[in-house]
Amino acid sequence: MIDPDVARLVRGVLWPGFLGRTAPDWLLRELDGGLAGVVYFGQNLSSDPAEVAALSAELRDHRPEILIGVDEEGGNVSRLEAQTGSTLPGHAQLGALDDVETTRAVGAALAERLHAAGANVALAPVADVNTNPANPVIGVRSFGPTADLVSRHVAAMVDGLQAGGVAACVKHYPGHGDTASDSHLDLPRIDLDLAELEAEHLPPFDAAIAAGVASVMTAHIVVPAFGDAPATLNPIPLRRLRESGFDGVIISDALDMAAIRSTTGSGRGAVLALEAGVDLLCIGNPSNLGPKQGATTDEDDYLEVFEAVCAAVADGELDRAIVERAAARVAWLARSVSPSTGSGTGASVPEPSAVPELVEGRFSDAIRRVVRVRGEVAIDASAITLVDLRDRPTFAVASAHDPFAESLAERFDVTRLAAGPSLRTPDPQAEAPASDELTLLLETIPADDGVVLLADRLGDDTPQRLAVDRFALVRPDAVVVSVGLPLSEDAVLPLPVIDTLAASLASADRVTELLAAASSAAPTHHLHDQHHRNGS
Questions:
Q1: What is the pTM of this model?
Q2: Identified catalytic residue from 71, 128, 206, 253
């Protein structure tokens, strides 16, 4: 039997997800019992803002001082616009534009949208400096590859979000930008010495702290300079965070990610995270299959963490005073962003102000300025076959929705093909296309269709780059739309490339505009979605 006082205390440091678009009974009971709040993921959110606001109001009826978080960055990562693709510029686009006032305005617009949904914590901005071009999970989610660039845009977005009445949560401390693996699937390791880390990856977090950021999210990464434990479970980097002047709420990245769940386990990881200095435990998105392959429910995932922390407090392994300090910080943050009580101190978040005028025009102009065309785009067709060469989206992006297909269908007759695995991994020794997946796919594309190849990893010798090279031999009229990091200035591709820096609706609309301008054929407004044989 769990002591009711301990149970209420522990609930105050837990932040679960849940399944579905209505609040389950177990969640409402836990909110009545002092649960800190919830995190919304795409699967929770209807495309109707009124439904989302009604859900938030119901939760707030059970817990007035509730923290409702949303993983909403703009660009590739959007939960509020998961069904359509984001209409806001992404971090890499903002970094390429390098106009901090536009970044601040995007933060304000994000805050306005979260407020309309009844949420009060944005899991943004991303402060990771993407120094590894092969990074599988950060990439265009970063403002860029240098500490100075990322720092000024992190500070601007924190300003915009918090001036808009939403608590910002800068992530992923101490920096996920130099990793070569995804912590949703593995436990990444960054082999940098402390001096490199201090110079290249920590300054954006210091800039966020100087801007008064309300919360910081940890990274599930091992930095040998800090020891063998991942940062979320490691008191050394979290002590450094406090010593740098941060007095807000430290939030764990999701405990259901493989970096924790497949190593220590979510329950044990929760205890270690609190001991290390984490204040609020993000349990994660129960719709992700993860290491348990979907064998648990949302309540199971929650109870695994809740019961583990309660047991650790009860048997004295976890000092109750640690949990009390963490719960006090979480309660302070909840008060500072609760409409009826928002008058906290320190990094308190004010009531929302109006989004700057001409924001929509500014954002459209920003997208036009950063979407670049390499080579001559010459689509002269009323129909387009869109071949998606990308792998499945990461858990961070989550949404499998393709805004490019739908946007193009406003102006062209579009057939979308998802490439099979042998097309994405062609034989690099082949001098010409053989009778394989590529040949079979090409046979399905009408000769008078325009061809657009959608890619996000076009570095030398990547499967997507090799597929583009082979495609060019047969369809030299094709156009590549790259939604990943841009190639270097001296890189040469055999086809024209439109670099967008984001897989968002805003980017897709600009691509459609460019292709329509290049085509003299009349639009026909249709979309056919096909999977080519082994397509994903």
A1: 0.90
A2: 253
